[in-house]
């Protein structure tokens, strides 16, 4: 097995006249915590949309674990073990926290129409296991006291936690986190960072888009910088911190 | 007033089944389907075509000969035809519109156009005159505190049975949960490994089958007309909104309430000689209820943020 998690080649996407993404070649390694940063409009979210199947590319190819997933359906990519979150937190509003987790955690094969009506012992065991596991994840993220609350009643920060819980319930190989710290208070941000680091140390490969540079510098093993859709820098936090292109992209060219 | 209760229950079951169908579709796809009435009429017209005796000459402009099949089989086939029709609508029309990100209002206007188009196809090719199913006449009998014909009682019971079954399926099966999930967020469902296109297709098919069943009921209880679905469409909308839009259980109860209110209001003293105005009382009451419970009887208040 190669160490390639995700590989994109000549990936292009434009909206009207704007080139949102234009990346010649970019590889991500397994079991690494990589952050993608860049100024607003750099194409970070579009890049996430392309690799998770939510948008189709104009041209180019995307490989996940060496399998070509270019323009695959989002649900197929999710079933391959790459789960994403969204910039604007999404939860199933009309389900409880527990139902959110059990729904996302249930495998397709165990949920045929017949099996959900006629419950065999095996099916009941499966559901109990799933419930136990949901509580395990909720304990870990400190939301188990809200198990029976409807997701629409949660605060923004609690929804972030639920979203993360939902993403990890299926033991994904890869997480795509789209601004996991946006709009949460500093204390929760710190907790979330700790959780993300813990997930990474458990062997989950993580790609993260985040604007909080301090946090990114602290936990990333590698940082990829996009600007106007193109790759402008790629390296360790130390390298990125001193990169001239990056400083220019964020602060504009100095006039002297 | 009470002598109208039987009629109220019968109108109630038609509207109730049709409202559940409309609400199911709206709940998952956010489409307000004005062509819903035409799918209802398709159920009735298809049954008429399948079951009428072969020598029945006045049907279908003398162009097509009815098939003369067994009546129950005809009803079942008609419901399947409606499902097929709904599935084709999704595949050929509404899915492409969705993929092109056409807005809700535009889609609504499309359904209005579709409604007018299909309705007039019926007028052209099917039946411009009022028709009846090939069933013998029955006498009304009294059951508990209402009276109706034995056949209509069967319709009532089958209708309630089907709706309870649908309710259980939606609540307890993965398919039902997936429908609720797609309703909350199509994107999030995809991330959870759900093929939302398939769920929406299944929703179209099941909604259309239910609508077809409502049409068969309406034709058994009353008669077959080219614009029969359109005539009760507003009452169906009323039932759906009254129960709380997007909730199947609410649509069931809301449909019954509207049906009973419409028929019972015929017995009001000031309505004597003005029965064609019967919808006014029911819809007036609906407006008053919504003033006090804007989310509908069973709708839930949402956190707005």
Most extensive interface: A-B, 33 and 26 residues
If you average the pLDDT of chain A, what whole number results? Answer: 86
CATH class of the largest domain in chain A: Alpha Beta
Strand % of chain B is under 5%
Provide the succession of SSEs of chain B: HHHHEEHHHHHHH
- Low-confidence segments of chain B: none
Class derived from helix and strand content of chain A: alpha/beta
What is the number of helical segments of chain A per DSSP (H or I, 4+ residues)? 10
Task: Please give a structural write-up.
The complex is a heterodimer of chains A (256) and B (305). Chain A is of the alpha/beta class and 256 residues long. Chain A has two domains: 4-91 and 156-251, 3-Layer(aba) Sandwich (Rossmann fold), CATH 3.40.50; 94-153, no CATH class. Helix content of chain A is 38%, strand content 24%. In chain A, the strands form two sheets. Chain A has a six-stranded mixed sheet, sandwiched between helices. In chain A, helix 7 links the parallel strand 7 and strand 8 (205-209). In chain A, helix 3 crosses helix 5 (121-140). The radius of gyration of chain A is 19 Å and the shape is globular. The model of chain A has no long low-confidence stretch (mean pLDDT 86). Chain B has 305 residues and is mainly α. Chain B has one domain (16-231). Chain B has helices at 5-29, 36-51, 71-99, 104-126, 150-172, 174-184, 186-191, 196-221, 228-243, 248-264, 278-292, and strands at residues 141-143, 146-148. A two-stranded antiparallel ribbon of chain B has the order 1-2. The longest helix of chain B is centred in the first third of the chain and has 29 residues, at 71-99. Chain B is globular. Chain A binds chain B through residues 52-54, 73-75, 78-79, 83-84, 86, 90-95, 99, 103-104, 106, 108, 111-113, 116-117, 152-153, 156, 166-167, 170, and chain B through 169, 172-175, 177, 180-181, 183-185, 187-197, 300, 302-303, 305.
